[in-house]
């Protein structure tokens, strides 16, 4: 699959609230697909871990700059 940026899709023009709603909708669609498919056990375990982590951390908002820096640090490793 070709790499597509948020600019290519025009998502950078959405408000922060709309982007967050879109991210949540995308995540929900991933969860539904995972629940209806047969993924390897390691992927199911990782998704479960991430979902639990997301639920725990959803009560503590992070600044976008921190989220971006963490993501970029992971990508650059």
Tag the structure with descriptive keywords.
single chain; 77 residues; mainly alpha; globular
Helices, strands, pairings?
Blueprint: H1 6-9, H2 16-36, H3 41-57, H4 64-76
Structural write-up:
The protein is mainly α. It has one domain. The chain is built from four helices and no strands. It is globular and about 35 Å long. The mean pLDDT is 84.
Distance between the termini: 22 Å
Low-confidence stretches: none
Content of β-strand: under 5%
Average predicted confidence as pLDDT: 84
The figure for the number of domains is: 1
Shape: globular
Question: Structural class given helices, strands, pairing?
Answer: mainly alpha
Number of strands: 0
Q: Considering DSSP H and I runs of 4 or more, what fraction of the residues is helical?
A: over 70%
Multimeric state: single chain
Largest sheet: none
| Helix-strand sequence | HHHH
CA radius of gyration is 15 Å
């Amino acid at each position: 699959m070709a790499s597509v940026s948020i600019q290519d899709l025009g998502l950078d023009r959405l408000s922060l609230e709309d982007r967050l709603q879109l991210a949540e909708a995308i995540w929900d669609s991933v969860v539904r697909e995972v629940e209806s498919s047969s993924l390897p056990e390691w992927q199911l375990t990782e998704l479960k871990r991430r979902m639990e982590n997301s639920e725990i951390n959803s009560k503590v908002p992070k600044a976008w700059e921190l989220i971006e820096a963490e993501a970029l640090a992971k990508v650059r490793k």
